[in-house]
Amino acid sequence: MEFASLLLAMIPTAAADGMETACQLVEGGCDASTNVLTNFIPPVIGLLMSAIAGGAVLFVVWGGALMLTSFGDETRFGSGKSSVLYGLVGFAIALTAQVALSYVVSQGQQVGSAAPILDVFRIAVDTMLTLFNVVFVIIIIASGFRFVLAHGKSDETDAARQAVIYAIIGAIVINVARSLVYAVVNLGL
After folding, report:
1. Count of CB atoms within 10 A of residue 71's CB?
2. What interhelical angle do 2-10 and 74-106 show, nearest 10?
3. Is the pLDDT of residue 152 over 60?
4. What 3-state DSSP class applies to 153?
5. Which SS3 state, helix, strand or coil, does residue 189 take?
């Protein structure tokens, strides 16, 4: 896994040691095939994901059992519904974290890059920009449906119109911010 090597390369060491990166401190250096950390991290991530998935299943099953045995008790049914919701949200967060980590690793950044921290920031900005642009498209589509389903009600059409206007303004701000970040990074200061 190249992510661990990238993190190791970003950790500065004392100049007195005569080392350029912290990778030289780890057996196997930054070579992904022999580095102890790159061979250790994937199984740990797999174990954590298995534990999170198991916990999510337990929460969902427990919530379903509470809902099933509520016998009309709104409080118990609500607790079961909350348990199911929290289990699914926790699992979704864990999967999102794994997808984000896989995306960063798939970028294939050079460990020996002159500015690995700037590379990480570039990846983060690209990821956030992509995510926000997807959210922009979803908001535009949802607002279009809301506008069509308003059936001429002025308050509903105004709300849909405001959502479109705010989404467009937000998309402009996000994309201009990205351009500014790249302009500053490429100045070479």
Report:
1. 7
2. 80
3. yes
4. coil
5. coil
φ, ψ of residue 27 to 5 degrees: the values are -60, 125
pLDDT band at 79 (very low <50, low <70, confident <90, very high): very high
CA-to-CA separations, 129 to 7, 47, 134, in angstroms, rounded? 23, 31, 9
Spatial CB neighbours of 35, under 8 Å, sequence gap ≥ 6 = 4, 5, 8, 23, 26, 27, 28, 29
Distance CA 53, CA 94 (A): 8
Rounded mean pLDDT of 104-113?
A: 54
141 Cβ neighbours under 8 A, 6+ residues apart: none
Q: Where are the domains of the chain?
A: 1-111, 114-189
Residues 94 and 48: their CA atoms lie apart, in Å, by 9
Write down the pLDDT at residue 78.
92
> Which two structure tokens, joined as six digits, stand for 21?
């990166």
Q: Which residue has the tokens 């983060």?
A: 124
Name the band, by pLDDT with cuts 50, 70 and 90, for residue 104: low
pTM as predicted: 0.45
The token pair at 109 is 């950044």
C-alpha span between 55 and 123 (Å, rounded) = 31
Torsion 147-153-156-159 (CA) sign: positive
* H or E segment to which residue 108 belongs: none
Residue with the bigger pLDDT between 127 and 76: it is 76
